[in-house]
């Protein structure tokens, strides 16, 4: 047993075994003897040639690495428990996640199917949204910093993250980040922004789909040259995700997909065409069909109005259990199934647009539709993700509890796990 493996940090964190090594140190499997739980411990080693000033900067960066995710309480970001200074160097105590990284999965299994990449992208967009709202830019999003714990997708390693409220600690002349996943403007020396993280997300999802990042070359300089001078390659395996990937890999950050637009495109790609999906006919096509039918049936002596109304009412039923109630208002009778359903949605008016899916390696879409006033849908699946596009237009019950009605145009997301 090595000296490090016998070490107990802060009289409570015992090092158990080495998990892996990187350029900045070692990650250990540990045990918190006070709370009797497994932990991951990141040992950060200082380069021997650091000056005293650089050593101070290193310590400050370490504290920042711990503070950044510690501020962000979300299922998709690794939780930091503690920071310990022992043997003259810092150690970060974190949540232990027994799961492979996206990089490992790509290396061992090759490119992933678009359905799974869509699920990963959606979770990472949520993680970035939480970080960006807190003023934190990750700056090093790449497959090795994404852990896949079953259906859970976890963003880790905020070592290069910075908060808008803290001073920059990057040394002048030092390139920070991973060249194959860094945004073009950052590689050119500009300050990283939330849009830079979105570029890195696009490169990460591209790598998951194609098996390699978009601008990877034989060395760092060739990679940076390609990043500066070449157009992003078109992904060959993206399928419906292609508009998301190309939009995130837009070199001009002002034209790059925003977070909201990326979410919208990704959700559209996840929904896709489905046999059970309620189709809507564009108004100009509908009017043309009505005119044609009217002219035809008039010559045949058929009641055109009855035929047209019947045609407009026909269509495939929804995939969820459908209930109705009246009158058409937000104060209508409570729909049945509230006490037994995981999720119930009822339209307060005709603007109640919903997207409901079951997460997993292959995402199952239950509903992607706009309900008419007082139409209701109920879902009994124990694990559900739901998006309500206009929170003022829908009444929502989760596990029997009615949620507050939102503001006009406000989007609300619900992640439900009853297992």
Widest sheet, order of strands: 1-2-3-4-6-5
As a percent range, the share of helical residues equals 25-40%
Which outline best applies? globular
Model regions low in confidence, pLDDT < 50 over at least 5 residues: 160-175, 274-319, 323-331
Strands, count: 19
- At CATH level 3, the topology of the largest domain is Transferase(Phosphotransferase), domain 1
Structural class: alpha+beta
**Into how many domains do the coordinates divide?**
4
Radius of gyration: 26 Å
CATH superfamily of the largest domain: Transferase(Phosphotransferase) domain 1
Biggest sheet features? 6 strands, antiparallel
Please give the alpha-carbon distance between the first and last residues.
41 Å
The helix tally amounts to 10
- H-E string: EEEEHEEHHEEEEHHHHHHHEEEEEEEEE
Protein name: non-specific serine/threonine protein kinase
GO molecular function, one term: ATP binding
Region (Disordered): 317-336
Binding site for ATP: 42
Write the layout of secondary structure elements.
Layout: E1 8-9, E2 13-22, E3 25-32, E4 37-44, H1 52-70, E5 80-86, E6 89-95, H2 102-109, H3 114-133, E7 136-137, E8 146-149, E9 152-155, E10 162-163, H4 184-187, H5 194-210, H6 220-229, H7 242-248, H8 259-271, H9 283-300, H10 304-313, E11 321-324, E12 343-347, E13 352-358, E14 364-371, E15 375-379, E16 383-388, E17 394-398, E18 401-402, E19 412-417
Helix pairs in contact: 3-5, 3-8, 5-7, 7-8, 9-10
């Amino acid at each position: 047993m090595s000296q490090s493996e016998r070490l107990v940090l802060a009289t409570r964190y015992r090092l158990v075994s080495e998990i892996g090594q990187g350029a900045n140190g070692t990650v250990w499997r540990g045990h918190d003897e006070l709370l009797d739980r497994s932990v991951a411990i990141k040992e950060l080693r200082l380069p021997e040639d650091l000056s005293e000033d650089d050593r101070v900067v290193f310590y400050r960066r370490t504290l920042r690495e711990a503070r950044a995710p510690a501020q962000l309480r979300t299922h998709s970001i690794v939780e930091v428990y503690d920071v310990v200074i022992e043997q003259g160097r810092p150690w970060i105590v974190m949540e232990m996640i027994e799961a492979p990284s996206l990089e490992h999965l790509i290396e061992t299994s090759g490119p992933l199917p678009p359905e799974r990449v869509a699920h990963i992208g959606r979770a990472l967009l949520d993680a970035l949204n939480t970080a960006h709202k807190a003023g934190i830019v990750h700056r090093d999003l790449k497959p090795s910093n994404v852990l896949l714990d079953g259906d859970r997708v976890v963003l880790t390693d905020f070592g290069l993250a910075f908060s808008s409220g803290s001073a920059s600690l990057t040394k002048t002349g030092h390139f920070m980040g991973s060249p194959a996943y860094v945004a073009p403007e950052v590689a050119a020396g500009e300050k990283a922004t939330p849009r830079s993280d979105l570029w890195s997300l696009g490169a990460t999802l591209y790598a998951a789909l194609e098996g390699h990042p978009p601008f990877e070359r034989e060395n760092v300089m060739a990679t940076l040259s390609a990043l500066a001078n070449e157009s992003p390659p078109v992904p060959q395996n993206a399928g419906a995700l292609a508009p998301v990937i190309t939009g995130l890999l837009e070199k001009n950050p002002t034209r790059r997909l925003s977070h909201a637009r990326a979410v919208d495109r990704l959700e559209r790609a996840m929904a896709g065409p489905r046999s059970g999906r309620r189709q809507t006919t564009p108004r100009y096509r509908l009017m043309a069909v009505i005119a044609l039918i009217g002219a035809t049936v008039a010559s045949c002596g058929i009641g055109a109005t009855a035929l047209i109304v019947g045609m407009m009412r026909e269509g495939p039923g929804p995939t969820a259990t459908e209930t109705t109630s009246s009158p058409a208002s937000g104060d209508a009778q409570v729909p049945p199934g509230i006490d037994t359903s995981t999720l119930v949605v009822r339209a307060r008016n005709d603007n109640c647009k919903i997207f409901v899916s079951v997460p997993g390696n292959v995402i199952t879409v239950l509903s992607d539709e706009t309900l008419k006033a007082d139409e209701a849908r109920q879902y009994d699946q124990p694990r559900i993700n739901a998006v309500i596009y206009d929170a003022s237009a829908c009444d929502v019950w989760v596990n029997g509890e009615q949620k507050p009605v939102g503001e006009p145009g406000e989007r609300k997301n619900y992640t439900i796990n009853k297992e």
